[in-house]
Structures are given as C-alpha cells and as structure tokens.
Amino acid sequence: MPCTVVVCGFFGDTGKGKIISYLSLKGKTAVTARAGVGPNAGHTVVYKGKEYKMRMLPSAFVYDKCRLLIGPGVLINPEILLQEIQITKSQNRVGVDHQCAVIEPKHIEADKKGHLAQKIKTTGSGTGPCNAERALRTVKLARDFSELKKFLTDVPLEVNTAINEGKNVLIEGTQGTYLSLFHGTYPYCTSKDVTASAACSDVGVGPTKVDDVVVVFKAYTTRVGGGPLPNELSWEEAEKRGWAEVATVTGRRRRSAPFSYELAKRAVMLNGATQAALTKIDVMFPECKGVKSYEELSKEAKAFIEKVEKEIQVPVTLIGTGPGTLEIVDRREELKS
Ligand code: IMP
Ligand code: MG
Asked: Degrees (nearest 5) of the Cα angle 31, 36, 38?
C-alpha cells in the first residue's frame, strides 16, 4: 500500500489517530501528510504509555523516521502547531506548505458566537470563519508568518516525490464523511469537504496516485455538536453500554447511537474505500480487549464483523481492540491471499 488515504466514515472520532499511528509504524512510512480542515480535529494516540491529542501534526509522529507534513488545504493555528512540535520533539521532520491558510484570533472569536456557536455548535477553533475568509481571498497564508518560516516547504512536491520513489505514504484525513460540507448533514457540518477525494486535494495528490483508501468506522456511532444522528441513545443508555464519550477538542459529551450500516455503506461509496477499519470492538465486546489475532476474537465479535463486511462489501482489515496503537488485529496479509 504505497499511497494510502485514511478517512472516517461516520461523524469523526472513530480512531483515525490510532489507525494512522499503527500504519506508520508497521509500514515504516516515509511521509505522512495531514489533510482535512485544521485544528478542529482531535486525533488521540496512545503509545508507549503516553496519550497525545493531536490537532495539527500527523498521528504518524510515533514512527520517528516519518516526515510529518501539513498540506496546503489545511488551516494552521501556529500556537497549537508549535506546541505539538515541542511535545513530540519533531522539529527536524515537520513541513508546512507555504499556502496553508492561518487561523487568527478574529476567526476564533467569530466561531464562538452567533449561528456557528449556537446552531451548528462548532468546535470554536476558528476553522469556519478562516475558510470563509479564504474563499474571499483575504486570508493570510503560512508564508506570511515569520514563526513558521523554518518549517515551510512544497508539500505536494514532497509527497509526490515519495510516491514516485515507491516509498510508503499516508494521507491523514480528519473529521468524518457526514461532517462534509458537500456530503454531510448540512448545515450541521464542517466548513469543507472531508471525503477521501478532498483529502488528496488538500495535500496535492491526484486520484491516479492512490493505492488504498481505508475508511475508519467505530463499533458504534457518535457525534458532537448539532445535527441528526439516527437511532440516538440517551446519555444514560450510552453510559450503560459504555459508549459515553467526551470530545477531545471541546470536552463536550459525544452523542451516541448503534452502528449504522446504511451510513457505513454510503461512506464506502463516497470515499471509494478499498478496505475498512473497525475500532473499539473491545468496548462492545470486552472479552476482545487487547486481542491481536482474528481467531482469538469472540464468536459474537466475529459475527458482527462479518455482518459489517457483508453490508459494506469491502474487507474489514484492521480491528481495534484497545486504545493503544498496537492493540489491533491486522488482517491485511491474511485477506490478500
Ligand atoms: P467546525 O468544524 O468546528 O466548524 O464544527 C462543525 C461541526 O463539526 C460541529 O458539529 C463539530 O462538533 C463537528 N466537528 C468538527 N471537527 C470534528 C472532529 O474532528 N470530530 C468530531 N466532530 C467534529
Ligand atoms: Mg476526534
């Protein structure tokens, strides 16, 4: 899988951070390019006993030889970016495209009031107002900020060079298919398209260069903010089932519902997925916690996975059995033959 795109098939928060971190270590990924909207994302990585909540840098930072790039389609919050570079000690391998637009305090202020805060219930990270200004062609770019100078690079050139040299490349999508401005639950969505095609465009990779699209689902569905969620459960019921989660960026309660086969099927179509990852199997089937081979999963868990595969018509190649990067069942080799 030289060039693989990873996106979420639901409403975000399905565990892309974990999947990307695993794939980067396993594939000795040369380059990971972060796509998506900006710091409204929160990708959680639990590795070597430490938890990281990444909002700007690719979750592939765990593989210490991986170059960490941010594509021109992505919005930068310089403060958050510099903090993450420090936390991950990655100053020598980070590259930010010259043309990334930059979130300023006025964007954050605008995102925390009126329609965006009260109706859409955004993350308040300034991404919507910043993308609006980008559309008006008045926004400032990364090249205008001196504190970003030493990280500036041509991300599309770097990514395509790595692909052409046959190196393993990951494109890290953010948010989720149904938060897409085009394909999501408008107006309850984010400020741009976030499907696999958009992720490629964000980092300057053309559709013919992509080998695999991994769509990530969680064993149940969650969403934060406003908008429809089919078969939504009460918070009390979610607590009973162990599905009561709190959002990474905003600390808000995540709303939850059972796995939606209908949404999953459509997400496979919209993203052109070649395979799926299914995370948090251990939350639904606690006996599966930490399991690393398919055989060891319980009968009930296997039946669920088989049902998912039958409905979505692509193989479930990666199965998350715990929050840790290495708590995973990887069936990619097994399913190839
Ligand atoms: P915005 O992207 O901050 O403008 O928020 C728009 C909607 O998308 C709100 O419902 C947010 O809660 C949701 N959202 C944005 N980013 C994420 C994410 O990374 N995970 C989950 N929900 C998100
Ligand atoms: Mg998240």
From this structure: 105
